[in-house]
Amino acid sequence: MIQQTGVAIALLRNPPSASCTTITITDGTTTSSEIVKDHLGKSAWNQWQVMTTFELDTKKRNISINDGLSKLIPLARQVRLLSWCSMVVVVSLDPDFLVAFAEWSLKGRLLVWTTKLVVVTRLTIPQLQALLSAHWTFSMMNTVFLNIEGESKQPRRCVMYVYRYGMYTYLPYSINGAQMVKIAFWTTAHGFKHISSVSYFNDKFENFYGAKVSVTSGTYMPYWDEEEVLAADGSKTIVYRGSDYRMVDAIASVLNFTVRVLPTSSWSEVTKLVEEHTSLISPILHGFLPERVKKFDFTYIYENAYLSFGMAKPDLEPRWKSVYYPLSTGVWTAMIGHVNNCILFINLQQYNVIDKHHKPTKHCIPQLIRAGHGEHPNVGVGTVFQDMVGMLLGQNLPRRVSYTSSSRVLVAAWLVFALILGLAYRGNLTASLTLPKYPPRPETLMEIVDHVNM
Fold first, then answer.
1. Using CA atoms, how far apart are residues 260 and 248, in angstroms rounded to an integer?
2. Residue 301's pLDDT is what?
3. Which of 194, 223, 256 is the last residue before a domain boundary?
4. Where, per UniProt, does this protein localize (predicted)?
5. Number of folded domains in the chain?
6. Which of 101, 151, 249, 428 is deepest in the core (most CB within 10 A)?
7. Residue 141 lies in a domain
8. Given the DSSP bridges, would you call strands 164-171 and 179-187 parallel, antiparallel or unpaired?
9. pLDDT per position as a tens digit, 83-131
10. Average pLDDT for residues 192-215, to the nearest whole number?
């Protein structure tokens, strides 16, 4: 039996698989240590590779094959899930063990299409053909059989001396229909010899050769819809529409099969027929949920669905607010505060100013912007505030400006400030009036709750 495992390992390593885990399952006729020893001796360990061996000895444990595999398969599946890629080798000469493995590997979801399965056994051709055609694991999955080709009179204990193995696979879809084919044989002297156009691990679903493929789906627009129409001859036909049907129809045209829609009454029946392998395809929107992961294997997400909400466009706020929008609240606050601070500063301090007759007189600092005259040498704070705001709004300068250089510098600085602020305001005002500003709209669920009118 060591030789049998070596043949399977040689097949799996030809060509070598990068960093894949080999899961070996035996029925107890070969010890785990012998398999590991044979694997180490026959494999080219040019990369880090892992091998996991499960041995089910029903006689030693005094349990049935089904009970043993029901506990073994979940453990093997955990190894497969934790591996970057995996390959499974099953070694058994017992047809009952192989039948039980086919059933429990399907129930326990041990295999996916990318998982290579090699079964090493010794059966007659009629037994082998019946076994492959009867079980989904062997007929539809990525499986090959290495069958020992020896004399039928040779006792089973002499397996070590058998040196020729035939390699078989099952093609569910071919030009000649479903059939088992021999693709190669292996000998100790020459290794593998390919004798067929079919590759070792052939893609069984690349071409359906016009076969009818069962499809199940439920009415759910815009994905799937069914309508019964009356033909010209009086017969009734069902017309299918929707994005899912168009997708299946496009796949059928490329892979060369005919769509046969099976009638269903509920969504649970749709998935149930797929689980029972009555239907091969179910083009329904099957969301990736934790509850479904426990039941199905998700291999590839082909459509991303997003949840969103729609709202009416917000009404425009009153137009008079457009005069406020050109400048931000911070700029408005800084400008008003700057004007008030200047007025306060002017009102609190006094200086001696030389008048035009070269006589020192005591004036308030408002004299720095507007010069007094006649009986009113001092200028009031209100008048200065009016002058400052007027210059800010683009009005003329005061008719009488103070004689000192400091006052003229102050007026010039204020004019520059008013010019910059005025240009910025007028430019933004034009844009604000041309492109009205809509109020902010809620973007999250919390904002929607806050904006609901109760």
1. 11
2. 73
3. 194
4. Cell membrane
5. 3
6. 101
7. yes
8. antiparallel
9. 888 889 898 889 999 999 999 999 999 998 889 999 988 899 999 999 9
10. 90
- Residue 253, sorted as left (phi over 0), alpha (psi -120 to 50) or beta, turns out to be alpha
Length of the chain as a residue count? 454
| 328 and 251 within one domain | no
Asked if residue 190 and residue 67 are part of one domain, the reply reads: yes
Structural domain containing residue 365: 319-434
* CA 335 – CA 339 distance, rounded (Å): 6
Tokens at 7, concatenated: 């043949």
Please check whether residues 226 and 328 belong to one and the same domain. Answer: no
Q: Which helix (H) or strand (E) holds 329?
A: helix 329-348
CB atoms within 10 A of CB 84: 10
Contact 158, 135 (CB under 8 A): no
pTM over 0.70: no
Beta strands in 195-300 (DSSP E): 211-215, 225-230, 236-241, 257-261
pLDDT at 412 over 50: yes
Q: Is residue 310 part of a domain?
A: no
Give 285-309 pLDDT, tens digit per residue. 777 788 888 888 777 777 776 777 7
Distance CA 50, CA 249 (A): 42
